[in-house]
Amino acid sequence: MSWELGTGMGHIDRMLLAARELRAGGHEVVFALKDLVRAWERVVAEGFEALQSPVWLPRMAQAPRLSTYAYVLASAGWLDPHGLAGLMHAWRALFRAVAPDIVIADHAPTALLSARWCGQPRAAIGNGFELPPLQRPLPAMRYWDADECARAAHSDEFVLRPVREAQRMTGDTPLRDLAALFADTPRLLACLPELTHYPDYGDLEPLGPCYVGDRGVPPQWPDGQRRAFIYMNAEHAALRPLVAALTRRGCAVLLHARGLTQADVQALGTGVRVETRPVRIDDVMRDADIVINHGSAGTVAAVALAGRPQWMFPNHLEQYMLARRARDAGVGLLSEPGSPLPDVERMLDRLFDDADLRESCERFARRHAGASTRQTGCRMADGILRALAR
Predict the structure, then answer these.
(1) Contact 277/207 with Cβ under 8 angstroms?
(2) DSSP classification of residue 74
(3) Pair 73, 180: CB distance under 8 Å
(4) What is the pLDDT of residue 74?
(5) Class (C level, CATH) for 2-209+373-389
(6) In this structure, are residues 4 and 108 in contact, taking their beta carbons and an 8 Å threshold?
(7) Fold match between 2-209+373-389 and 227-367?
(8) Any residues with CB less than 8 A from the CB of 45 and at least 6 apart, and which?
C-alpha cells in the first residue's frame, strides 16, 4: 500500500481500513508511507510493516496555473523529466525489494505510473479529489467556474510533455493522456455519494465513508451546557474568536489542535479541553452538539453520519471542494477561504438552534444509517482482491 501526496491521517486511516480486512483474510500488507512520523501510532502499532515511499521534496516555485488534477501531478514533480525519472526508478526498486502481488496506490500517482510500466497488478483507492472523473481532458477542479473549465482544456498537455520525456528516458510507453494513468486500474472511491469532490463520476460507485473512528484518546469534556468539538490548525485566524464566543455562551469546548503553546492553552480559558493527540472520533460524535473543522473528508463524513451540524473553514482547494458539496447536501455551513470571519454569534445560533439545518443533518444520517467504515473497508478489500485475480 503506497502513499505519496497529501498530509494528515486520512491516507493512513483509509489504507488501514482495507489492510485490516486483507490481513483478516490471510494476506500480508506492507505500507510505503510518505510520512513515517505518523506510522508508529497507527500502522506499526497494529503490526504492519512500514517503509519510506519515494517522494518529491522541492516546493514548486512560480506554480503554473493549472485547473485540473494536472496541478496535483505538477506538485509531485511531474514537470521535471529527470526528477520524475528518478522517482519512477525508486518506486520500481521498491517493488523489486518487496515483490508485491499487487500495488495499491492511495494518492500515489507516481507509484501508479511506475507500476504501469512494470506490468504490476494495481488498484487505486482514494476520495473524489484523488480519483477525479476520467474525462478527456480531466475536469476543472473548480467545476463551477466557467473560466476554469475553459482553462482545463489545456492543463493536461502542459504536464504531459515532461512526463512523456521522463517515460522515454525510462523506456516506458508514453501516456496518451492523463486519464490513461488510471487505465486498467480499478478505482475504489471511498466516500459517500453526496460527498464526492466532483458532482459527476459516471458509473463509478462510491463505496462508503472512510475514517478510523475507534483509535485515539478518549474525549474528556469540560463542564458546559452544550458541547462543541473543534478540529482546526492552531494558527488559523478563526480559532481563537470561535473559542471565545463558545466559552462566553457557557459551552464545553473540546479542541484538537497541534502547535499550541502552554500559554496559548491557558489563554483559551477554563471551559476548553485541548488535545494535541487525535481524539477517538466515534466517541466524540456521540456527545458533541456541533463540530467546527477544516473540511477534511474523514471528519466531514463522520460528522454528517452522526447527524451533527458542522461549520467548515477549508484551508485549501481539496477541502473547499468537499465543503461546498457538504454545504449543498445540507449538512453544514461554509466559510469561504480568504473571506473575513462572518458574524460568529449569528453563525453559532444557526448551528445550535436552526431547526431546518438540524433536521437536514439528521435526515442525511437517517439516509445512511446502514453505512459503516467497516463496510467500506470490506468493499475496498474485495475490490483489491478482484484486481489481483484479473
Answers:
(1) no
(2) I
(3) no
(4) 93
(5) alpha beta
(6) yes
(7) yes
(8) none
Looking at the chain, how many residues does it have? 390
Residue 219, classed as helix, strand or coil, is: coil
User: Rounded to an integer, what distance in angstroms lies between the CA atom of residue 257 and that of residue 260?
Assistant: 7
119: left (phi over 0), alpha (psi -120 to 50) or beta: left
**What is the CATH architecture of 227-367?**
3-Layer(aba) Sandwich (3.40)
The answer to whether the CB of 2 falls within 8 A of the CB of 107 is no
CB 199 within 8 A of CB 264: no
CA-nearest of 293, 337, 334 to 315 is 337
Instruction: Enumerate the domain spans of the chain.
Output: 2-209+373-389, 227-367
Check if the beta carbon of residue 274 is closer than 8 Å to that of residue 377: no
Beta-bridge mates of residue 290: 228
How large is the average pLDDT for residues 260-279? 86
Find the range with the poorest average confidence among 50-54, 64-68, 137-141, 366-370.
Answer: 64-68
What mean pLDDT, rounded, does the chain reach?
93
Residue 119 DSSP code = T
Distance, in Å, from the CA atom of 76 to the CA atom of 37, rounded to the nearest integer, reads: 20
CA distance 270 to 211: 30
| Residue labelled with grid coordinates 482544456 | 153
- For residue 365, with 0-12 CB atoms within 10 Å meaning exposed, 13-18 middle and 19 or more buried, which class applies? middle
The predicted-structure confidence for 296-321, as pLDDT tens digits, reads as follows 999 999 999 999 999 999 999 999 99
Give the whole-angstrom CA distance, residue 134 versus residue 108.
17
